[in-house]
Design brief:
Length: 577
């Protein structure tokens, strides 16, 4: 890929603000990548939305018909004709009945068992914050609910409801039952959305459950110094939409955004403290959101290398610097035992801090095959460690597996971004490593990445973090940083993995798919990458409708409105915390 190599050689990244970042390819890199694709005979510009979804006459007729209907009946009226109440995501099923339930002036939240006391207290607090009414909590397990009360109950395992589903019975009392406390919690989120529309709720019964296990948000808390309070507010908003993942990207070239006691010299002055992290985790626990921390290594390591230039992967085998704070690249030398020792110290410090299942290594945009000749020491290390024929890709895979063993020793599952996974490497990445898939073609990673279908075939769990439609970032030349959410809502599904859009609906490559029911398909998340030319409050407003689309798509219930305009009206009706 000479065009990509020429682009990369033209920059030595003298300052962190000039470093490439995931989802922020350089304009020259985009141009070189397009040129290289054309050189391979596959450079014609495709106008498509997702694989198998054309823009033919049938689509135009459907859109035109929808516009005519919208002039006659509002999308919310169409949704109400469905009989299901307005919620985001929509309920999987609802059977209406005559009558209305209303939160009583002396309403209580009663519990079927003592292990729901915390859920009852949280729901009562959230109802009070939303409505101004303050239902009391009866801590007596098995207390009888009366008219106007809310009752929470655990029931035996239910294959359809699974680990996060619930059932509603709305009559004299508003009864939420589920096999797990998480399911009870999500039933409470439905109650909040209904109460936001008025003081009464129609009688009926519901069964509701998500299709995908992971639904959420990634925040770049390295390039943007988000406050503890802001992060906590996003947890509450995620839970309101029944989303359960907050991925915190804590380190990058610009900042090391989390306190370290083992290496305080690398930490930014405005980093999140461990006390902040503890508070964030406490809120996340109450709202059934799992925090996934990411310490991005071995690329995007300039914040670390600024204090430890001796651990840098040397360009061309030489290294010159005018001061200890500068760096030539942002790459940690994974063949250097001292670098590995420091990584292990950091992992030993941070892994026990986060109680969730996952640990994200990052591992993105470290080296492209075109760059291998620029780093002969890594090539030599690969051959010496993994045998004749090994390349830097094998060294990268070996680094992932090494870190994975450390994470597993703490009971964690490792995650990585997909762009450094090489199908032809001698060293396979451990199948237990989960993959956040974000791009098909990258000039800063393994240029043509392993397709999602092959990843799941290799046994990897895969999260769809595809640039379209999950990215929220600044535009970069022809690349659209913020995807068209009408297109996403009306024509995209979670099992469709799509590259960035540029100049409209065009993409470098078609979207690819995996089976919608593949057990290795985890779900999807909105990915907020900085720096952004806006305030955190503006970011919160900007991502809210996008989180709602991801909520609907990952819950995967029948939609209440087929149009994005109608969905926006439903979202407005259900409000937000």
């Amino acid at each position: 890929m000479p065009a990509v190599l020429a682009c990369d050689r033209s920059r030595r990244w003298p300052h962190p603000s000039e470093s490439p970042q995931r989802g922020r390819l350089s304009a020259a890199g985009v141009a070189g990548l397009v040129s290289s694709r054309r050189a391979l005979g596959n450079g014609r510009r495709r106008r498509m939305r997702c694989a198998g979804l054309g823009i033919g006459a049938e689509r135009r007729i459907t859109v035109a018909t929808g516009l005519v209907l919208a002039l006659i009946v509002s999308p919310v009226q169409l949704a109400q004709a469905d009989s299901r109440p307005l919620t985001v995501p929509a309920l999987q099923s609802w059977t209406p009945a005559a009558g209305k339930w209303q939160l009583g002036s002396n309403a209580r939240v009663v519990i079927g068992s003592g292990d729901l006391l915390g859920e009852a207290q949280q729901l009562a607090s959230d109802v009070r914050a939303l409505t101004g009414r303050a239902p009391s909590v009866d801590p007596t397990p098995g207390a009888r609910a009366v008219r106007g009360d809310i009752r929470l109950a655990l029931v035996r395992p239910d294959a359809e409801l699974g680990a996060e589903g619930y059932a509603l019975k709305v009559g004299g009392a508003f009864v939420i039952s589920a096999p797990t406390p998480a399911g009870v919690f999500y039933g409470g989120r439905t109650l909040l959305q209904l109460l936001s529309q008025g003081p009464s709720v129609s009688h009926g019964t519901a069964r509701d459950w998500p299709r995908y296990s992971q639904r959420g948000l990634m925040l770049d808390a390295a390039r943007t110094a988000y406050s503890r309070a802001f992060i906590e507010s996003q947890i509450v908003r995620l839970a309101y939409l029944k989303e359960n993942i907050l991925h915190l990207h804590l380190t990058d070239d610009e900042r090391w955004g989390i306190q370290s006691d083992t290496h305080p010299e690398i930490v930014a002055s405005d980093a999140l403290s461990k006390s902040d992290i503890g508070d964030i985790l406490a809120v996340a626990d109450k709202y059934h959101v799992q925090v996934i921390p990411e310490i991005d290594l071995p690329g995007h390591s300039a914040a670390l290398l600024a204090k430890h230039p001796d651990l840098e992967l040397k360009l061309g085998g030489t290294y010159t610097t005018s001061s200890p704070e500068t760096y030539v690249t942002d790459k940690l030398d994974i063949g250097n035992p001292a670098a590995l020792a420091m990584v292990e110290q950091l992992l030993d410090e941070y892994l026990p801090l986060f109680p969730g299942r996952y640990w994200d290594l990052g591992d993105d945009e470290y080296l492209s095959p075109a760059q291998y000749p620029l780093y002969p020491t890594l090539a030599s290390y690969a051959v010496a460690t993994y045998g004749p024929g090994a390349t830097p890709s094998d060294a990268i895979h070996g680094f992932i597996n090494w870190a994975d063993a450390i994470a597993r020793s703490y009971g964690k599952t490792m995650r990585v971004w997909n762009d450094q996974l090489n199908l032809g490497a001698l060293v396979p990445v451990n199948a237990d490593v989960a993959v956040d898939w974000w791009i098909d073609v990258s000039p800063f990673g393994d240029t043509f990445t392993v397709p999602p279908l092959l990843l799941v075939g290799q046994g990897h769990d895969v999260l769809n973090a595809g640039w379209f439609p999950t990215y929220y970032a600044g535009d970069l030349g022809p690349i659209q940083g913020k995807s068209n959410m009408q297109q996403a809502y009306e024509s995209w599904e979670v099992n469709q993995f799509c590259d960035p859009e540029y100049t409209g609906d065009n993409r470098l490559t078609p979207c690819t798919t995996v089976g919608a029911g593949d057990p290795h398909l985890l779900g999807s998340q909105i990915n907020v990458w900085g720096p952004l030319p806006e305030t955190p409050d503006q970011t919160a407003a900007g991502i809210w409708p996008r989180l709602a689309v991801i909520s609907q798509k990952t819950w995967n219930s029948p939609v209440l409105s087929s149009s994005y305009t109608g969905f926006q009206q439903i979202l407005s009706a259900v409000g937000h915390p």
